[in-house]
Each structure stands twice: as structure tokens, then as C-alpha cells.
Amino acid sequence: MPAILRIDVDRAYENRILHYARVNQELFLGIDSLGYLGPCKKLVDDLNSRGIKASLFFQPFTVPNKDFAQELMKHGHSIGLHAVHTKDYNDFSRDLGKISRRFDGKVYGFTKHGSGKFKLSRRHDPNYDPEKFIEYAKQSNLRYFLGNRENPDEKEKKVDGILYFPSAFWLNRNYREDKFTIDWLAEESVNRDIVVLVHPMDVVAGTELMVREYERMLDRVEFITIDDVTK
Fold this sequence. Notes:
Layout: E1 3-9, H1 16-24, H2 38-50, E2 55-58, H3 66-74, E3 78-83, H4 89-102, E4 107-112, H5 130-139, E5 144-149, E6 157-159, E7 162-167, E8 169-170, H6 182-188, E9 195-198, H7 200-204, H8 208-220, E10 223-224, H9 226-230
Parallel strand pairs: 1-2, 1-9, 1-10, 2-3, 3-4, 4-5, 5-7, 8-9
Antiparallel strand pairs: 6-7
Helix pairs in contact: 6-8
């Protein structure tokens, strides 16, 4: 079975000042000519050139402008919310609506920004509560929630009709045990669905080792979108 390439789009600009103003302070526009979503676009261009479809998750402050959104849909990538404001359902629902409108209502699930350790922007809710998030998915008539735990041996399950993947195989080695290698991923993904978590900056500005593992992974693993899994 193919793996699911999950791309969480946290970075608005490669420029740290513009990124901080846009995402952390929620004060700046998304201006393509200044490099808005540059890291994500570079990663997507590479995937498109290889014919690989991914599942991309956008924050309300990394939502693509119209042309890039249309390009993503044209190439068959799936789209979800990378949830930031999750303190209550109204905040979550507002952000979900923003992403969904940009993608013609074709948003069927979400991921969570952060794993409960740090407050990552001004209004970010760091609390990581999968049970609450699955309930949000139910209330919103979504299909899935992809969790942030770091043990890819954990298998997916259905909870009240919501497909829930508790863990992911993180490309960044800081978030996986040494036994979870690219070879392990290639062998295991033949038998079951596994979510592979990548951030655009992992590849665009990552270490030589991380980029090398990314290349090996794309060479050895077949990928499918989460929307294809949940149809």
C-alpha cells in the first residue's frame, strides 16, 4: 500500500522578518513577489516534476493565493487545514472555512500545528488533545485527523467514523527513533498505510542528510493522497 506524504506548511516566507510578521504577528500580507510560500512552491514544483501527489496542510496565515491554489488542485494534490487556533470549536471552524473556501470546499480533514510543547505564535493554542480534535472533525463533517505522535508503528483506526492516524514517520530524524529508517518505511508501507511528515524547509533548507533521505524516500516509496485513502 502506498504511503501518505503529509506536508505541513508552517513557513510563509524564507525571510525570517516577513515570516514573523505574517505568521507570528498576523500583520503582513501574502505577497507572491516577495516570496510568499517560496519553500512550499519549491517543494511542490519538485513533486510535480516527479509525478508525485502529496497532501498539503495550510495554516490560515499560509493559505495559498488563488493561482497557486488552483495549481495544487490541477496536479491532484489533496488539501487540509493545519490547525493553529484550536482553543474552541468556533476558532477552529473559522480557520477551516478559510482554507475550504480557497479550495472550492474540497477540504476533508486536518492536522495540528505543534505537539503540545511550545506556543508557536501569538494566538497559537499549544494544547494537543487528539480526542478534542476528533470531535472537531465530527462536528465539521470531516473524514480524518492526522496526529503528531512519533511512533510510526502505531496503526490507524476509525474513531466515531473519523480516520485517525496517531503517529507519523517524520523525515526529520529528531522526531523518530533510529530503528525507523527509510528502508523500514519502504518495507512497511507495502503492507499498510503510513503517514510521512515533511515540512518544506526540511528539504529546501535542510541538512545534507535530510535531503539525501528525502531523495531515497521518493525513490523507494510509492505515495498516495489522504483523500484517496478516505474516498
